[in-house]
Amino acid sequence: MNSKEKTKEHFNETAGDYNNSSDGKFVEGMYDVLVEEIEKSESGKILDVGCGNGNLFTLLPENKYELYGVDFSQNMIIEAKSKCRNAKFSVADAEMLPFDDDSFDIVVCNASFHHYIHPDRVLEEMHRVLKDGGKLLIGDPYIPTGIRGVMNVMLRFSHSGDYHIYGFEEMENLLAENELMPVSSIRTGHRTALYIAEK
């Protein structure tokens, strides 16, 4: 079973009790800074890639944004649909987003980017669906350089599909290589970071 299949299996199994899981508790600390960044826009069409159970959208003002979420886990999408009825959710692979070019003002990817085996393909798709001048927000784990190298070796044996933890420079280079202009990289907590880029 490859990392992608492990991710799908793991989140299908944990979807029903995700908020109480270690993953859910970890992600919880990232919502405030994402909401703050999103709310700098008065309106717009937003896509959450790897939306999980839809928690992020429940924290945004109702009827202010047009909300779409995709996730690889069918069970997570079932949970998302049950809790956030003002958004449109679908099961989809981040490498093949089911949307037209230039569709979204903001694309969010919170605590899922480190699962992606082919990050270039995912960023290419995010770039494709973003409007010109659109904003990309990636919230992901952050680990200092020395420990990160060891951690990335250990992740090869992960049962939950974790694949790669990025450093600031590595992520900024990856964004730039995919025609997404890095705007800022911010430590948002003890083990988390927010990367902001524009198309």
UniProtKB/TrEMBL annotation:
Gene3D superfamilies recorded: Vaccinia Virus protein VP39
SUPFAM superfamilies: S-adenosyl-L-methionine-dependent methyltransferases
Keywords: Methyltransferase, Transferase
CDD domains linked to this entry: AdoMet_MTases
Taxonomic source organism: Methanobrevibacter millerae
Biological process per Gene Ontology, one example term: methylation
Protein's recorded name: Methyltransferase domain-containing protein
Coiled coil stretches, renumbered: none
